[in-house]
What we know:
CATH superfamily: NADP-dependent oxidoreductase domain
Strand content: under 5%
Low-confidence stretches: none
Number of strands: 2
CATH architecture: Alpha-Beta Barrel
Number of domains: 1
Largest sheet: 2 strands, parallel
CATH topology: TIM Barrel
Order of helices and strands: HEHHHEHH
Strand order of the largest sheet: 1-2
Structural class: mainly alpha
Amino acid sequence: MLRRAIEAEVLPFCQANNIGVINYSPMVSGLLTGAMTAERVAAFPADDWRRKAAEFNEPKLTRNLRLVELLRAIGSEHGVSAGVVAVAWTLHNPAITAAIVGGRSAAQVDGLAPALEFRLTEPEFQRIQQSLADNGA
């Protein structure tokens, strides 16, 4: 959702040639889970690689956390988390074969289990697309 460089050329090529694509980290290392806050980012340990990642720093951090609010709002309509919505957005693209999601605990994995079945409606997908376009993502 935040790293979209392959959408214009690579994904259409893969789809046209029946090449599978597995998306890695559709929740952007925790950023789109709904659990991330500016305060939590500020408290990352000094050796956490995310301290230097553009998505976790201003000006992108504020934009990304606004996006999470939309994901959370859509998810709340279905009883799922923002992270599940982020995975569903990824899988909405017919060129994506699968998504690798991770968790640091059994509870995190359990919280993402609804992503196995949850799918966005086209209007929900378009709301996210519009938000991404409006915010330069």
